[in-house]
Amino acid sequence: NAGVTQTPKFRVLKTGQSMTLLCAQDMNHEYMYWYRQDPGMGLRLIHYSVGEGTTAKGEVPDGYNVSRLKKQNFLLGLESAAPSQTSVYFCASLLAGGYNEQFFGPGTRLTVL
Amino acid sequence: AQRVTQPEKLLSVFKGAPVELKCNYSYSGSPELFWYVQYSRQRLQLLLRHISRESIKGFTADLNKGETSFHLKKPFAQEEDSAMYYCALKRVGNTPLVFGKGTRLSVIA
Question: What is the rounded CA–CA span in Å between residue A35 and residue A89?
Fold first, then answer.
């Protein structure tokens, strides 16, 4: 059981470039989330998904898009990267129902120059 | 709107001293409260949840609905407790967690 994995681990982009972050989970979880972590700001929810083919906006969705074509994968896209998107990005997943634990990935450190 | 407040950005204590990390929340319903911990350059992991009423690594937290608080406590801090601690709230149903801004605990030898 790999749990929640994220690729890549690190990335440096130039302003205006695009990229996709991949999150994968092998726990058959229904719900998946993308957060960004910034100093002094804590964790802020970007987008989330409650099932295959569905996505919803979180607290800070602007500049990002997501897709959940397969249950086990949740993609986060940056179409035109900006320096304000320099952050550490965490993916998480959750099994529906009850008082379940939300599992996090190891994070992707993104720098936009 | 739901909100989680962790008033201290940084908390420094000496080894062996008691620790209390504060968490207050605003939510009109019955919340689920969690504490997550993030050790240096690692992923977040669940430390404890109010529903379990358990002690993990010597830490406990009690939900006080009257004061809308869920403070994390440990009687004797250890150096390995140094980490970032996040309080999180979950509303009724499978809704996303709402996180506080975190408190960095530094335990000084």
Answer: 6
**In chain B, what residues touch A92 (CB-CB under 8 Å)?**
44
- Dump pLDDT digits (tens) for A92-111: 999 887 667 899 999 999 99
| CB neighbour list of residue A40: distance below 8 Å, 6 or more residues apart | B9, B101
Of all residues in chain B, the one with the smallest CA distance to A5 is B43
Sheet holding B72-74, edge to edge: B19-21, B72-74, B60-61
Distance CA B63, CA A16 (A): 46
How confident is the model at residue A35, as a pLDDT? 97
Residue A40: its chain B contacts at CB < 8 A?
A: 9, 101
Rounded to a whole number of angstroms, the distance from the CA of B104 to the nearest CA of chain A is 10
Testing the interface with A: which of B9, B33, B94, B95 to mutate, by most A Cβ within 10 A? Answer: B94
- A54, A48 Cβ separation under 8 angstroms: no
The two tokens of residue A112 are 């936009």
